[in-house]
Amino acid sequence: MAGDAKKLQPIIVKRVRKGGHAAHGGAWKIAYADFVTAMMAFFLLMWLIGSTTDGDKKGIADYFAAPLKIALLSSGSGAGDSSHVLKGGGQDLTRSAGQVRNGDVEAPRGTASVRALKAEQLRAEISRLEDLKRKIEQKIESNPRLAGLRSQILLDMTADGLRIQIVDADGRPMFASGSADVQPYMRELLQALGGLLAAVPNRLTLEGHTDAASFSAGERGYSNWELSADRANASRREMLLGALPEGQVLRVQGLASSVLQVPADPRSSANRRISIIVMNRDAEERALRGSLMPLEAATPEVAPAPAPQPAAPPAAAPSSRPEPAR
What we know:
It is a single chain. This protein is α+β, with helices and mostly antiparallel strands. The chain has 2 domains: 69 residues, no CATH class; 173 residues, CATH 3.30.1330.60. The protein is 38% helix and 10% strand. A 5-stranded mixed beta sheet has the order 1-2-5-3-4. Strand 3, helix 8 and strand 4 form a beta-alpha-beta unit. Helix 5 packs antiparallel against helix 7 and helix 7 crosses helix 8. It is rod-shaped, with a radius of gyration of 45 Å. The C terminus is likely disordered.
């Protein structure tokens, strides 16, 4: 019986469950390593931000705001140029201007100075006026009737632009004596010039000139000032008939005998002329501002008007005086 009791005694199995790490385990080392890595990354970020200029920060912000736009519209050597973001290739982060490329070579800029731009515009304008001068000469040579007037047409470049002068010749005046009546051959020439000048965008100045022979009434009656202005305005009307736009004429003025073509002979027929100036940009701006040309830039032939002559007795009526021709 006793042997049977021992056989029926239950067997108890004790399972020992192990707890967490002891006080000196290694799990804390992993957490500490993560913390140190995060702190190192944080201090590295702060250092980089501190060594970046305000302009570079703005470039970075613009890049992340619109990266595709910056990449496509970049005018520098690449997306990393200083025009937009930090330059690449630098090795010295202590520079106050941020990183620079090796060699400190700046990327070429696409901007030009205002002076260089004006010089380029002036060269293009001179080239256009020279081309217009050749077209006028070809137009005159190709027309048999106008070719006979070639000796009376003077073309030259001045500080104000292309100047076209039509001068009187002995026996072949542009206008009737003492009046603004245009001669038929002069009318044809002015209309042809109006058609050519309509093709250019430049504004025009028309000037009338006479010789020094005065009217019998003197300066107080109908004088060379009125005559030169009337002739300039008559020339303007003929050019309008030749398809010249009305708004292209900026000034019409009569200068009488104040600017002589032949100063040595004040009564020479060459002093009676019409000047058509195809103005360049600078001359047009001066005219619109109402300012005078600086003395050093004035053309050599321009001279101040002479002092007025004493008035003649007003009883005499104005006379056209066919001799000498006016």
